[in-house]
Amino acid sequence: MSANARLVQRAGLAVVAVFLVLAAAAWVQAGPDDEVDAVEHQREMQQLERLGGRASVQTAEFDQWLSSLWHGRRLAGTLAVLGLVVGGACWRVGGLMAEDDGGSEA
After folding, report:
1. Is the dihedral of CA 69, 71, 73, 78 positive or negative?
2. Number of continuous H segments (helices) and E segments (strands) in the chain
3. C-alpha span between 39 and 83 (Å, rounded)
């Protein structure tokens, strides 16, 4: 395995470690999630459907879900998943680099 491949894999491990520490810190610092009034939310979605149609409602719900990933305890989960994905990608790229180096030497 070449030094560059090992370096990329170690960088992937470092990314995973840093993101998991950040996720743990975000989890500890986050308070309880805000309670949403279900009746008020339903009223808002019905009014939005009357004004803009079903596509507007689904767009608004998707936007609310996406923005919820960056607050509170969901932020911790988002950071953990992003760290694992990026770190895993680095590990895989390092493995592919090692395979490529091994094939060219033989």
Report:
1. positive
2. 4, 0
3. 37
Q: Give the pLDDT confidence of 26-70 residue by residue, as tens digits.
A: 999 987 777 778 888 899 999 999 999 999 999 999 999 998 888
List the structure tokens of 69: 């990933």
Predicted TM-score of the model (pTM): 0.74
- 90 exposure class (CB count in 10 Å sphere: 0-12, 13-18, 19+): buried
- Residue 83, class by beta-carbon neighbours within 10 Å (0-12 exposed, 13-18 middle, 19+ buried)? buried
Q: Which residue has the tokens 């009014």?
A: 47
Please report, as a single letter, which amino acid is at residue 3: A
Cα 10 to Cα 3, 17, 105, distances in angstroms: 10, 10, 23
d(CA 3, CA 32): 46
- Distance between alpha carbon 82 and the CA centroid of its chain, in Å? 4
Q: Provide the H-helix boundaries in the chain.
A: 3-29, 38-52, 54-68, 72-105
